[in-house]
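Form 12-C: Joint structure prediction
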Amino acid sequence: MILIKIDKDSSQPLYLQISEQIQLMIEDGRLKQGDTLPSSRSLSTQLEMNRTTITKAYENLWAMGYTESQSGSYTRIRGRELLCSMTSGESGGSSLDWTGRITPSCSRMIEKMNEVRIPPVDGDLINLSSLSPDSAYWPLEDFKKCITQAAFNGDDYLFSYGDPAGYLPLRKNLAEYLRTHQIRTSADEIIITSGSQSAIDLVFRSLLKEGDVIITENPTYGYLIPLLQYYNCRIESIEITEEGMNLDALEHVLKTVKPALIYTMPNFQNPTGITTSQDHRERLLSICERQKIPLIEDGFVEELKYTGKTILPIKSMDKKGMVIYLGTFSKVLFPGLRTGWIAAPKEYIEKLSTIKNSSELCGNNLTQAAFSNFLSSGLFEKYVRKIHGRYKNKMSIAMGAARKYLHFEHLNYTKPSGGYTFWVSIRNVNYDEQHLIRAIEDAGVSVSPGSKYFVQSSEDLHFRISIAMADAADIEKAIEIIGGVVAGLPRCEEGNNVPG
Amino acid sequence: MILIKIDKDSSQPLYLQISEQIQLMIEDGRLKQGDTLPSSRSLSTQLEMNRTTITKAYENLWAMGYTESQSGSYTRIRGRELLCSMTSGESGGSSLDWTGRITPSCSRMIEKMNEVRIPPVDGDLINLSSLSPDSAYWPLEDFKKCITQAAFNGDDYLFSYGDPAGYLPLRKNLAEYLRTHQIRTSADEIIITSGSQSAIDLVFRSLLKEGDVIITENPTYGYLIPLLQYYNCRIESIEITEEGMNLDALEHVLKTVKPALIYTMPNFQNPTGITTSQDHRERLLSICERQKIPLIEDGFVEELKYTGKTILPIKSMDKKGMVIYLGTFSKVLFPGLRTGWIAAPKEYIEKLSTIKNSSELCGNNLTQAAFSNFLSSGLFEKYVRKIHGRYKNKMSIAMGAARKYLHFEHLNYTKPSGGYTFWVSIRNVNYDEQHLIRAIEDAGVSVSPGSKYFVQSSEDLHFRISIAMADAADIEKAIEIIGGVVAGLPRCEEGNNVPG
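Section 2 - Result
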């Protein structure tokens, strides 16, 4: 007779309850090789249970190798000496050192990820940290219509393996859309990716060999840094001024360094918010042309220029096919639907398409079709017009508050002409970044620590302010709070910089 | 006066038509640096057009750097000597050698992809080639309800950045579902991926260093081969017999080779359709335990066992945490929604989650929520019950036809107990694989050439037959046709093998 406890209210099926309890008895030695289980008839009587339930439990035990089947019965406990039992040693964890098995490049990357990752923002704080579009503005009803339209009126193709380059109508609509930014391209010069990050990974995978150098602005997009650790590549970073990447410094560096790629964000650079001029873009492109260096242009919020004349993407001037242009729906629409794109010369897009095919077969057709509908119906344009005014208003509130509350001799901030972020720099102070960020948090505001964006660390302290997610009503208050924190913290004697 | 042709019926905005024609004139030299465009007033009169349209066209030209703005006018053609014109040399293509820039490992991989890729099947042929579920069985209406339920009743979270490990309710539902295969796991031991291929890529990325060896069955899943070229790893392949990977041969190889991974498909192996026994699984697992080798178990159609007793996944016996179990919705449900998963020890899943975070931030929340609803509502179970009978019927028709029409002394075929594929081997013939495949196609049937699955080539000829997509009604006819082709092709004299 064996003791089995049945819980009829449990969501776990009865046969599994029986089977698991017997397994446990075998594993902890209460039942041994050669022992016999009660017949299904007697156990069903004992447990007051249907006999087929017992049979199902016994079949399970057999299938898992716990019992031997002999002349139609499954009741004899089998030797499982080859397998380790759950309770014998190994303390329940794995006996493999998985962490030790991770490759050195992935381990370095993981370590770096833990440094640059922006933790979720405490809900009680005013969020000037996240660079994710304001969900209050999302055109959910319109977009849901595009999803159902794709799911219900589309054909089965959307549920099948698709083109590795992405859903063709979306690529066509994107080519059309890019013309509004004067980028003349066609569907076969575009590949759809799972957001910008996977676009960057795809470009790196295709073009970076171990030991290669890539040039970026300093500071730059933080998530580049761990990825380049993975590819065993070195970042050579060039100071960014109010005009953008310092091109004299770039030309100087190029005398000795032959980079595999240059990465730039000409509009509202993340984190600084700086936008480059037409002349700057022409000069950067011509440097790349002369030196034959592919240029990644990350146009992550191309749509959100608030002030000043339109300045066109570098890609729009790219007659020689030097530019790998990255676009995404994640920074104005839905990050969770992971849809971005690369526009580049056809020859290169074809290679990327095969590489994508080898590593993930294809993308998510249904989501791509929904975005395609959203573009072709004019809803995207309508949405961008709507949010443009709202974000512009938030940024103008932020700039007004900064003029009022961030007016310190030892503090500078950038004045972006669009996008979501601006950049605060503090010098000659007696405290470090962690202290500053914590003091601001303690006062009720979350900002993003500058060190997450630096390739080469800076002597000054910095943080990024993002107006993306905060309510317009909270922004002025939050910046007033930051000003109060900065005013209350000690400064050094003139000329006594403390490294941050 | 300049000549501009306007097409009022074109979908291209009027201002763009004007702006592009002027650009062209500048590029081909009809307009030169210092030339002046007509005033917007005079051009608007000439073209019988609203003046604001002309102004917009001129603003565009300025924004692209074609004209200079002086005291409010944009009409003077600017020097663009830094930029190359579209028509000067370079034959319209890129002046960068993009193909030459692709890294050697990606180039090798692309080359191999072109070998293993299965081209789309001509619609006139009976398709015994594709390993993609039959769309005729798809529960589109049920699934669309799950999508709209997720999109309309879910919260905004689904459209935001999500957990890199995947949507938590889906992971919980998968853990529950895996219990039906006796795999005891929890949400934090699961990561959601964009299908199985990206799961494999993620595992390779995390564990494979250049020069590492991975052990697979020979033949094996074709798309592994190019991916391993990318990782600069070597496949050591072990012959598969009717019992599965030859474990004696494996133990022999392990005396001299220390592989980073072993990859196996214990159920209905792709391409051979072979299923291993309980004993085989225990022995393979115990080899991995003794030698501390992580084991990838690809459970791609775990659900489709037709005959014989249930045999459980190796993962269900994995007390020591050696097994990386791969599952996917692509092979029974929708390939186009790219949803698969990895079940493995928590410590390892956490690393994979950070790696995924670094290379694509997160997955597609909305799709994951739809699958989660599909699982939790019991619709997946209902669907699997339905298709199980249908595919079983197709396989039994195929096996019946094979007994009748593939009965040759020089031909063997496997007899799968589940899944979609079986494997045909032909020896002692006087023709090569290409000739055979073409002859079968000319007769109206598409099968998958065996060489796409071989790591080490085989002397015999092989092809894979898949019953996944063909109509039940066509399968017998198709196999009769194949039998006819084989009968009509020349054989060698006994003992005169011609290498395939």
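Section 3 - Comments
Chain A has three domains: 1-95, 107-120+138-381, 382-488. Chain A touches chain B through 105 residues (CB under 8 Å).
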